[in-house]
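Researcher: Please translate sequence to structure tokens.
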Amino acid sequence: MTALVEVRFKGNRKAYFTWDREEPLPTGRRVIVTVDRGQDLGTVSAFGEAAERKCGVGCSGCSLGQAPTPVGAVLNPATADDTHLAGELRKAEDDVRRTVLERAAAHNLPMKISDAEWQWDRKKLTIYFTAEQRVDFRALVRDLASLFRTRIELRQIGARDEAKRLTGVGRCGREYCCSSWLPELRPVSLALAKDQRLSLNPSQISGGCGRLLCCLRYEHEFYVASRKRFPKEGKHLTTGHGEERVQAVDIFRERVLLRAADGSTRTVTLQELRQELTETPTAPAARPETPPPAQLVTFDEGPLASPEETVESLSSGPRPPKRRRRRGRRGGRGRPPVERPQNDGNNGSDGNDGNDGKA
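Model: Translation complete:
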């Protein structure tokens, strides 16, 4: 019966293979597997049903995921000589990385060499690097192929993948989640840190890779589900101490900080707060006041006029409007009056008889 085997290699790289023999392979056993154009040595991390439950897409081994596809077969368990040869190759990889770094600098390539990995049969050498943009490394590949006399593969990875390969210790004092157990690296946004009420200081919420912590992603559901049990911050509640405002909540200790109208604060547990809200009677809603009924307002218009007085007022007609008296002079306020020349009997003003100087 064919069994599925999960095998891990250097840098937390894993792949799935088949095993045709009856005896099971224990976890941690070194085995020789068939890969593309050769053979490689790895360590068994899951066997049989445990390997089949791992779908490889980040579901953490649920029964709904599809079984992973094997890429080869396990040939046989590794011997002591095979393990010794793999150890010698691991020691030589540091020198290979320094050599590749020098050749990349000679070709003026803006790339950071992260790691180098030999295949167990020395038929392929994989170089992992990071770069801010796309790099044309064709000339570097030809140079390295002539130097090491093997197949060269340059693979560009991101900052999170680099931290996963090199591993390290995080802020919590434990090994990186991406290197130890996290099956998939998913993008993390700053909105997740805001939902968890964390400091937005990059030095406080960034990991060893310089990106946001991976735990902000897979812990987000816990924070969202826990905050639904607490009242929202800023909400006004009527408790046994009167009307109070929710100042802050502590989801881990299940405590609520309340602030009264006079400025005093107190801390109660979530259970005590629920009990106070249950025992405190809710004030009935105030009914809108009905307006008073409309009253008829009358005005005293005096004695009625006689028919003779009414006819006389109608026949007299309306009074003519009064003319408003203009103030000021014709020339305007503050202007001197216009002087008109006096007429002495002549038509012209220069003493002539009205002619223009002709006889």
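Researcher: Any highlights?
Model: The first helix runs from residue 49 to 52.
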